[in-house]
From TrEMBL:
Entry GO MF terms: metal ion binding; oxidoreductase activity
PROSITE patterns with a match to the protein in the record: FE2OG_OXY (PS51471)
InterPro entries the record matches: DIOX_N, IPNS-like_FE2OG_OXY, IPNS-like_sf, Iron_ascorbate_oxido_reductase, Oxoglu/Fe-dep_dioxygenase_dom
Organism: Pterulicium gracile
Domain Fe2OG dioxygenase: from-to ranges: 204-317
Family named by the database record: Belongs to the iron/ascorbate-dependent oxidoreductase family.
Keywords, comma-separated and alphabetical: Iron, Metal-binding, Oxidoreductase
TM annotation in the entry: none
The protein, known as: Fe2OG dioxygenase domain-containing protein
Domain of life according to the entry: Eukaryota
Length: 357
């Protein structure tokens, strides 16, 4: 019988293993907490409000994402918005193309499949190349504030999409009111006056985006870099995301860079921090990378990626608001960013994201 002498780990190997284990143990577990916002909306004392505010800000410091329950938006209102969104995307392509998105400053209108390529790149040539080789496989309809003297929303005819305009304007206003309340909770959690952001988000310079991810053969999304929506951060203060039950949203753990599914939870809204709020807070609050990928295959039809719907409300500060480090967020490092206006930042990002045609 042949005996092989066992090799014992060297002290240096033990040290390496211990360091790896220690690093793993010290890495925070990635979670997207479910936070009941009714405890803030219906609070009867400042302490109740502060407790919810601290939970929200704590989550935004760690992962940048939360699920918000108890938000106060009726199921029927959300269902109505989804129903009218679905009917809009069922319109003929020729009809939708008459409403085509025109410019990054207006950021309104219909965006056909392949026209947008979200990414963190700031290189226009690189983005154009990605858009050509691996476009985002989705279409969208962008809606801004209706009371804008310069930039107008682009609506289908009432005969083509009955009640679409009224439904979306009402939903826009509902989302604005909710984001204003969440911004109040963030102010409290950052040791600011509760109303600190009120006059900085009151002009409703937001964007309501209706999204349709058509059903497609899985093989078409297998090319390198191709997906529903590439990895990116959002541009404004907060994003309110209403998603169906198909799934596909993934959020990156900022510590490990691993992506985790943001599995749909009924009766919740996914809310995440955008770039401008992160800059405002001197990166105290995280603007976290996320993406939309193909959901796992289903046994009944493993070769087809099912269609998916979502509605994103991108809340922004007033376009002329100066985004400078908040007084409670300077820390020991001082201010990390130069002052920028909302318009400068968002228009610049959009200009590189979209195909001009």
């Amino acid at each position: 019988m042949l005996f092989v002498k066992a090799r014992h780990p060297t002290p240096s190997l033990f040290l390496t293993l211990r360091r790896r284990l220690a690093t793993h143990a010290n890495t925070p577990k990635f979670t997207i907490p479910v936070i009941d916002f009714s405890s803030f909306r219906k609070a009867t004392s400042p302490a109740e409000k502060r407790a919810t505010a601290d939970r929200i800000v704590g989550a935004f410091k760690e992962s940048g994402f939360i699920y918000l329950s108890g938000h106060g938006i009726p199921k029927s209102v959300i269902k109505g918005a989804f129903d009218h969104s679905a009917k809009f995307f069922q319109l003929p392509v020729e009809t939708k193309d008459t409403l085509a998105w025109e410019s990054p400053r207006s950021n309104r209108g219909y965006v056909r499949i392949g026209r947008e390529r979200v990414t963190q790149s700031a290189d226009a040539a690189e983005i154009a190349k990605m858009r050509e080789s691996a476009p985002d496989y989705k279409e969208s309809m962008e809606i801004g504030r209706e009371a804008d003297a310069e930039w107008k929303n682009m609506w289908p005819k009432e005969s083509e999409a009955p009640e679409f305009r009224g439904t979306m304007l009402g939903f826009f206003q509902t989302c604005h009111e909710l984001q204003a309340q969440v911004m109040r909770s963030i102010a409290l959690g950052l040791d600011l006056e509760e109303t600190f952001f009120d006059n900085k988000v009151d002009q409703q310079c937001h964007n309501l985006r209706l999204l349709s991810y058509p059903s497609v053969k899985r093989s078409l999304l297998n090319a390198e870099g191709t997906g529903r929506a590439g990895a990116h951060s959002d541009y404004g203060t907060l994003t309110l995301l209403f998603q169906d039950q198909v799934g596909g949203l993934e959020v990156q753990n900022p510590h490990t860079k691993v992506y985790h599914p943001a599995t749909p939870i009924p009766d919740t809204i996914v809310i995440n921090v955008g770039d401008l709020l992160s800059r405002w807070s001197n990166d105290v609050l995280r603007s976290t990378l996320h993406r939309v990928v193909s959901p796992p295959p289903t046994p009944s039809d493993p070769d087809t990626v099912p269609g998916r719907q979502s509605i994103a409300f991108f809340s922004n500060p007033n376009f002329d608001a100066e985004i400078a480090c908040l007084p409670t967020c300077k820390g020991t490092e001082g201010e990390k960013y130069e002052v920028v206006t909302t318009e400068e930042y968002i228009v610049g990002r959009l200009r590189m994201t979209y195909d001009s045609k």
